[in-house]
Design brief:
single chain, 321 residues, alpha/beta, 8-stranded mixed sheet, 9 helices, 14 strands
């Protein structure tokens, strides 16, 4: 069910929520958190769909704050809202706030009266993120703040910026997308022979911040220099392409082939094809909502590991002029 409230106010939205619960039996007692999604006007649906999928694991109230990408554009101040419950909201209740003009400038007052009482707050920016997320009006309200470096105009540069402005509670989907890679690499190194890794080589697309974070994590954890080679994301080869770990007995190689498969090559063993699917938005969001405490390892990789990486080899990139 979708209830539309054009040219409304936050207090009117709150009253409408109470009325919907009384009339339809929808309740918020089982909600475990409030998720605030900050998007541009017209870019709400993909994020709402991801939140609906994640809500099956994390019942929550979703507040979507949508406003113009150009706040200087002259338009009359107004607020349009939608309330989605039942089949249109997964296991959550979704409140969509579309703010125009001056009404879009007071983000905190728009959402403050709609937060669940005594429930943690998570903020997510699917697109462009604030300059310093922890100091933004919505970021100050949240225990966890989720950004996506891959959605920024300069993904690798954004990681460097995030390292400088990092506050415990910040996280990024570039890190979340590495969970399966990190688990597979840890499993390989947990098998004999237990030799130290002497060098790490990682290849990936130039616009893949996850490639850079994986190199920083491996160098930090293994104490071995990591070399990064970045190339054009041609065909079906975005993201991470190959990881090679050098050891005395021979190299371990994990290489992605087209699709959701990586090939594992190890000395003295037959090659293995391993399922390692690319993670979509609902999976990444659901994982990040499983923890509400700061991710200390991400903070260490970002603040310490990233700064120790050498400059990547970008000689094969042919960017358009």
């Amino acid at each position: 069910m979708i209830v539309e409230l054009p040219n409304t106010t936050t207090s009117a939205v709150s009253r409408a929520l109470v009325r919907i619960r009384e009339e339809g039996g929808a309740v918020a007692l089982g909600r475990v958190l409030t998720l605030i999604i900050c998007t541009e006007l017209g870019a709400e649906e993909d994020a709402i769909e991801a939140a609906n999928h994640a809500s099956r694991e994390h019942p929550m109230r979703v507040i979507v704050l949508s406003k113009s990408a150009d706040p200087t554009h002259p338009v009359e101040a107004s607020l349009d809202a939608e309330i989605r419950v039942g089949g249109d909201a997964g296991a959550s209740e979704v409140i969509v706030l579309r703010a125009y003009g001056e009404a879009a400038k007071s983000e905190e007052s728009l959402v403050n009266g709609l937060l669940l009482a005594d429930a943690p707050v998570v903020a997510w920016w699917p697109g462009d993120a604030p300059v310093v997320v922890a100091e933004s009006p919505i970021g100050r309200m949240a225990q966890r703040r989720i950004t996506d470096a891959a959605a920024q105009s300069d993904p690798r540069g954004y990681l460097q910026h995030l390292a400088r402005s990092y506050t415990p509670g910040d996280t990024d989907f570039a890190w979340t997308r590495l969970t399966l890679w990190r688990a597979q690499l840890a499993a390989v190194l947990d098998q004999p022979p237990f030799e130290p890794v002497t060098r790490v080589h990682i290849e990936g697309a130039w616009d893949s911040p996850s490639t850079t974070l994986l190199a920083a994590w491996l160098q930090l954890q293994l104490g071995a220099k990591a070399d990064t080679i970045l190339d054009d994301p041609v065909g079906n080869k975005p993201g991470i392409h190959r990881v090679r770990l050098q050891r005395a007995s021979g190299d371990i190689v994990l290489e992605r082939v087209p699709g959701n498969i990586v090939t594992l090559v190890q000395p003295g063993q037959p090659n293995h094809d391993i399922s390692l699917p690319r993670r979509d938005l609902p999976e990444c969001l659901a994982e990040e909502l499983r923890r509400l405490d700061p991710d200390d390892l991400f903070g260490e990789v970002l603040q310490v590991g990233l700064g120790k990486l050498s400059e990547p080899d970008t000689s094969s990139i042919t960017l358009p002029t």
